[in-house]
């Protein structure tokens, strides 16, 4: 099951709208890197756990 992380679900001064989807480990890595580079967080096991805990199952889009 693909997972999704969506910045719109978190309070942000920049009103970031980025959404990332893919396999769980890919999303955790990419969302953590985004949180560090764009939002100024520090990369840590706690950040990655927070990201992992916030993931949602991706809703398939039907053609």
UniProtKB/TrEMBL annotation:
UniProt biased composition (Basic and acidic residues): 40-63
Residue ranges, annotated region (Disordered): 35-63
UniProt xrefs under InterPro entries: DUF1059
Name of this chain's protein: DUF1059 domain-containing protein
